[in-house]
Design a protein that fits this description.
Layout (H helix, E strand, L loop, with lengths): L5 H12 L16 H9 L12 H17 L9 E3 L1 H9 L1 H9 L6 H19 L5 H11 L6 H6 L3 H21 L10 E10 L4 E11 L10 E6 L6 H17 L5 E6 L5 E5 L2 H22 L22 H9 L13
Parallel strand pairs: 1-3, 4-5
Antiparallel strand pairs: 2-3, 3-4, 5-6
Bound molecules: iron/sulfur cluster.
Length: 343
């Protein structure tokens, strides 16, 4: 099992802390389209920073130092602890809520169907450059991909008015995609649904993520990849943290951080873009460590700890959770600002 001395760990950390530029504030969300949108994502060669060749190894060593001791307590027969953005977000909000949500996975909803269909249409637009009938194309694409969430059957079972409303919504989102995104030149190596997997701690922890779109060739000395997430819902505070996690994954996987990360909102056509700096990568690393330590503890059989929070009112475990009920009672009639925005 991988384990290093404290001085080596401190050395990695000192090197990393001074190795990449600090992230500046996220850009506002101007409505961009065509070449302007792509230019915002790709920048110019001169804007792309040189890659510190020791950065990825230092981050990996840092993670190994933090996690290798924690997995020693896992039973031998336990499978790998899988770390995704959903798992990190969920376990850091409330362990008990995550465990309850995993035990009773809800069925498809109109929102989930819309999101899955818009994702499928975005992939089609980027790869084929054509969408004929948004609903039919999306459902066909989902069916081909195996449709693990049961969206095709769900949409097929909607009543006429619900189905028409969903179709109108999907058509609106499709129009945002069509009007904003040009056909991407082959030289930009657009990859949709790119899976990134990083095993750690001898394979007992597996970090993974699937990005909606990656643009640009792997680094040849300068950071050059841009990672894009597509969201059909409204802005949520965790979207930036999700992108930072993907930036960390890409850094660990490829040896170079992405140049920029971005979220495209199909409801309004906004594009949020930010460069990837030291604070983004370190923030993601700290969240991954904190979340993984909790997930490893749960995987080892520890009882999940309830942490009352603004989402208690929507939690599937609320009825049996005294701290959550107390929180809801305290805040009855006055939901905290941002509670809904976080959903
Ligand atoms: S009700 Fe609140 S404290 Fe209880 S499990 Fe759910 S989110 Fe956690």
């Amino acid at each position: 099992m991988h384990r290093r001395g404290a001085s080596a760990a401190v050395s990695h950390r000192s090197a990393i802390l001074g190795s990449v530029p600090t992230t500046t504030t996220a850009s506002p969300a101007p409505l961009l389209a065509g070449d302007a949108l792509v230019a915002r994502l790709r920048g110019t060669p001169g804007e792309r920073p040189l890659v510190d060749p020791g950065l990825a190894g230092g981050l990996r060593d840092w993670l190994e130092d933090e996690l290798s001791g924690a997995v020693a307590g896992l039973p031998e027969e336990a499978g790998p602890v899988r770390i995704s953005k959903e798992a990190v977000n969920g376990v850091l909000v409330c362990e008990a809520q995550l465990v309850a949500a995993r035990a009773g996975r809800p069925g498809p909803t109109v929102q989930l169907a819309r999101g899955s269909m818009v994702d499928a249409l975005f992939r089609q637009w980027v790869t084929v450059g054509r969408i004929d009938d948004p609903v039919a194309d999306a459902l066909e694409a989902l069916e081909v991909q195996g449709d693990p969430d049961g969206i095709v059957a769900f949409v097929g079972g909607l009543a006429g008015e619900e189905r028409r409303a969903l179709a109108a919504e999907v058509a609106d989102h499709t129009e945002r995609i069509r009007s904003a995104w040009p056909v991407l030149p082959a030289s930009w190596l657009a990859r949709t649904q790119e899976r990134m997997v990083v095993p750690l701690a001898g394979g007992r922890v597996v970090l993974s993520g699937v990005v909606d779109l990656a643009l640009g060739a792997p680094s040849g000395g300068r950071a050059s990849v841009c990672v894009v997430e597509v969201k059909s819902g409204r802005r949520r505070v965790e979207h930036r943290a999700d992108l930072h996690l993907y930036a960390l994954l890409e850094t660990l996987r490829s040896g170079a951080p992405p140049f920029r990360v971005a979220t495209f909102y199909t409801a309004g056509g906004e594009l949020d873009v930010e460069p990837v700096g030291r604070d983004a990568l370190l923030g993601a690393l700290h969240r991954v460590v904190a979340g993984t330590l909790r997930l490893v503890r749960l995987a080892a059989g520890a009882a999940p700890v309830p942490t009352p929070n603004p989402l208690c009112g929507w939690c599937p475990a609320l009825a049996g959770c005294d701290p959550g009920l107390a929180r809801v009672a305290e805040t009855a009639g006055a939901p905290a600002d941002g509670a809904l925005a976080c959903r």
